[in-house]
Amino acid sequence: PAPNSEDYTRMLQKAYVAAKYADPAAVVVFGGMAQNGVRGWEGWERDFIQHVYDHGGGRYFDIMAIHPYTHPDEGLDHLVTLISEARAVLDTNDDSDVPIWLTEVGWPIPPVAWGRRVLTNEELAEWLVDGYYSQRVLDLADKVFWYNFRDSESKGEGYFGLVTGSWERKPQYYAYQQVACELNVSE
Known about the structure:
Shape: globular
Oligomer: single chain
Radius of gyration: 17 Å
């Protein structure tokens, strides 16, 4: 009913062993942590990742996943700090070789704003490129996944899409397309 690092560690250990038994090449991703797994967020305990290490879960994942949702007004430094705090926990626990993936990033457009300044699609497209796909972020995170592809007007989180509910492409779509092409060219 609530996040619990001890329970999560037991599940992670069992899942890791089962996955590796079924396929030794399987990659086990630590469940995506709200914000960064360090600060705690809306019911998540502080230092959740460290607590998993403390309970013996350190060698039972191959990738650390976090969800550093930040409003563009918080700036790139805030986003980099969130990722860096997670990286510091991995490094402190001798896991400097474990990659970090941002498995959910984004921000909604109206009608959802969660009491924050309302963004336009154009501002969000710019943040997608300048924030989440900046070199400072990519130096810390191996992969970045945008949440969500298509708006779903059925819930509050339904306005993160790169396209509308009727499949109309938003400026975020074109920004994401640009980034994907640039990253593929450089690899």
